[in-house]
Design goal:
This protein is α/β, with parallel strands linked by helices and 232 residues long. It has ten helices and eight strands. The chain has a single domain (2-231), classed as Aldolase class I (TIM Barrel, Alpha-Beta Barrel), CATH 3.20.20.70. An eight-stranded parallel beta barrel has the order 1-2-3-4-5-6-7-8, surrounded by seven helices.
């Protein structure tokens, strides 16, 4: 399993890198679960950290705006991100999800076919009135994405394990793998969740709050990144 850590600036990116993160995921928590940061922040991180560490960038928690999302995805790709993550936050139907993802994928792959598109659903989809993440493997495969992910939409301390059982998360991972997709699990992950994640075996585990000492609005601590990396 790879460890993805989500810094908000260059200083946090360096701490994440030095702590042992495998993927550096530039985001902006002020704009939501998958809030987008600025192109120059992505570029600064890309230019400053270990070139062997891939950069990821979130482009936002989107409602049904395939054109806007495609343009944002192109911007993230051209700014240096290898993984481009979109959150299907207010997407109501499978048709909307497909239309979003197929256009985002076309936008990113037209810039660089080696870039990876990440479709993110939410374990708390019922309370945010969004599409079930369990539908994403099939839709994502049809749309040509590379990876499907599950996160929490509302950041109130409740983890993905509060909304989804270990068996359900295992089914999500196995379903994605059956379609040839990689997987990521995130969403207020706690140290107590790590043993279950090792059993579930997603390809990537995404964190922020746990490496900020429990509060995602504070600062990433290098020693906590190392602690998570060692426990995994």
């Amino acid at each position: 399993m790879k460890l993805l850590v989500s810094p908000i600036n260059l200083e946090e990116a360096v701490s994440s890198c030095n702590g042992g993160a495998d993927i550096i995921d530039v985001k902006n928590p002020k704009e939501g679960s998958l809030g987008a940061n600025f192109p120059w922040v992505i570029q600064a991180v890309r230019d400053s950290i270990d070139s062997k560490k891939p950069i990821s960038a979130t482009i936002g928690d989107f409602n049904y705006k395939p054109g806007t999302a495609s343009l944002a995805a192109y911007g993230a790709a051209s700014s240096g991100a290898e993984y481009i993550k979109v959150g299907l936050y207010d997407i109501q139907t499978e048709e909307q999800a497909y239309d979003m993802l197929v256009n985002i994928t076309s936008s990113v792959k037209s810039y660089d076919e080696n870039k990876k598109v990440v479709a993110c659903g939410y374990s708390d989809y019922q309370r945010i009135n969004s599409i079930s993440p369990m539908k994403l493997p099939k839709i994502g495969a049809s749309a040509g994405v590379d990876l499907v992910m599950m996160d929490t939409g509302l950041k109130d301390g409740k983890s993905t394990f509060y909304f989804m059982s270990e068996d359900t998360l295992t089914t999500f991972v196995e379903s994605a793998h059956s379609f040839g997709l990689n997987t990521a699990l995130a969403g207020s992950i706690k140290f107590d969740d790590l043993e279950a994640l090792k059993r579930i075996q997603p390809d990537i585990i995404g964190v922020r709050g746990i490496v900020c000492g429990g509060d995602r609005n504070t600062v990433i601590q290098e020693e906590l990144v190392t602690k998570v990396r060692n426990e995994l």
